[in-house]
Write a structure and sequence with these properties.
By secondary structure, the protein is an alpha+beta fold. It folds into two domains: 3-167 and 283-372, Aminopeptidase; 175-279, Alpha-Beta Plaits. Helix content is 33%, strand content 26%. The protein is built from nine helices and 17 strands. It has helices spanning 3-12, 20-32, 95-115, 134-142, 193-207, 258-268, 291-304, 320-324, 348-372; strands at residues 40-44, 52-56, 62-70, 84-86, 89-91, 121-126, 147-153, 162-167, 169-178, 225-233, 243-252, 273-279, 284-285, 309-313, 328-332, 336-337, 345-347. The strands form three sheets. Strands 1, 2, 3, 6, 7, 8, 13, 14 and 15 form a nine-stranded mixed beta sheet that branches.
Length: 373
């Protein structure tokens, strides 16, 4: 498989989250790449949720290896859906996050099929990872018995010399403040919902500090954080606000719990203000001394000719559901910059290297399995 060409073809599909018509076209293209009779491909969709494409070389759902990823992207200009190759880099929406590595997974599947490797191998590509993975949740409910000894997660892009061993738990919280609307010239006759919100957010900041590149930067970045993603209150300038709403994005380490967050929020609410947990997940924490992870790391170091480091990231990953089931999750991706930004790019050589690492690792697993049979 020409990985680079497949990646470019995937990027040309305008699969912004929610554009299901284009997403289905992209999945049909993926399906067309496989002509072998020993492959099963299904496009799962339920209740108008985002579709999921499921590719595997077996009928069972107890896998040796699963690769997880997504084909949806954040919005971008039309120009970004026409990939550009320049100076060893490929520019475009989804080059780093993460269509290049979806192409890597498809290449691995083709290799496993053509070489008839004796491993149960599958790929799950979702299409709403950028907005909560509700389609993936429905897929996993429908496939409640699905398991994998090892999960390869290439959706942690940025630096091929780093393997991610920890991801935080993203918790999204909506805070609602209510007041009494009156004319802006007589504020003492009403109650300003915006003021109530500001008081509440100030209390939250006393527990979860504000970090920024031109302000406070923690010495240890493996800490709980929050940013106020969206604040909406008031209608017009001369009326006291009767309603204000804030969407908060908390990122919790494995040392914190949802119950602990709720306890803190309870302490911060002022009269007239309440909150609801919109969504929560679980952190992914892997043992850096796990034999599979160390074996993968050794393959990667041999191919790259450099030592790799472990790192921790604040972002979430769809592999969390498999981590809860006991899978060994190996989080490793290629190098690039500009994820979600206008200048997004991936280093082409790193895509080829991830593909080589993945195939060598799968070969080793297959050989080990054969020798044990």
């Amino acid at each position: 498989m020409d990985i680079l060409q497949v990646a470019q073809n995937l990027i040309r599909f305008r699969t912004e989250t929610g554009n299901n018509a284009e997403i289905i076209k992209c999945m049909q293209y993926i399906k067309s790449l496989f002509h072998q009779n020993n492959v099963k491909i299904d496009i799962f969709q339920k209740d108008n949720l985002a579709p999921v494409i499921f590719i595997r070389n077996c009928s069972e759902e107890d896998f040796d290896v699963l690769v997880l990823g997504h084909i949806d992207v954040v919005p971008a200009t039309s120009e970004m859906f026409e990939p550009v190759i320049k100076d060893g880099k490929m520019f475009g929406r989804g080059t780093l996050d993460m269509k290049s590595f979806a192409a890597v997974a498809l290449n691995s599947m083709e290799y496993v099929l053509n070489q008839k490797l004796p491993i149960k191998f599958g790929i799950i590509l979702s299409s709403d990872e950028e907005k909560g993975s509700k389609g993936t949740e429905a897929f996993l409910i429908a496939h409640s018995m699905i398991r994998a000894k090892i999960v390869l997660d290439n959706d942690v892009g940025g630096d091929i010399l780093k393997i991610v061993s920890k991801c935080k738990n993203p918790v999204f919280v909506k805070i609602i403040a209510k007041g009494e609307a009156v004319h802006g010239s007589t504020p003492w006759e009403g109650v300003d919902a915006n003021e109530r919100m500001l008081q509440t957010l100030t209390k939250i900041r006393q527990i979860y500090p504000y970090f920024s590149k031109d302000g406070l930067i923690p010495d240890d970045k493996w800490v709980d954080t929050v940013h106020f993603a969206k604040i909406c209150g008031g209608e017009v300038s001369n009326v006291i606000s009767c309603y204000c709403e804030t969407l908060c994005d908390f990122r919790l380490t494995e040392n914190s719990s949802l119950e602990g967050l709720k306890d803190n929020l309870d302490k911060c609410m002022v009269p007239g203000v309440c909150y609801e947990i919109v969504s929560s997940s679980t952190p992914v924490v892997m043992d850096e001394n796990n034999p599979y992870i160390l074996e993968y790391k050794n393959f990667a170091e041999d191919i790259l000719g450099q030592k790799l480091e472990f790192e921790h990231i604040g972002g979430a990953t769809d592999s969390r559901e498999f981590a809860l089931k006991g899978s060994v999750v190996i989080m490793h991706s290629g190098s690039g910059e500009g994820m979600h930004a206008p200048g997004e790019f991936v280093e082409i050589e790193s895509v080829k290297q991830i593909a080589d690492i993945q195939i060598k690792f799968l070969e080793k697993l297959a050989n080990t399995k054969s020798s044990c049979q």
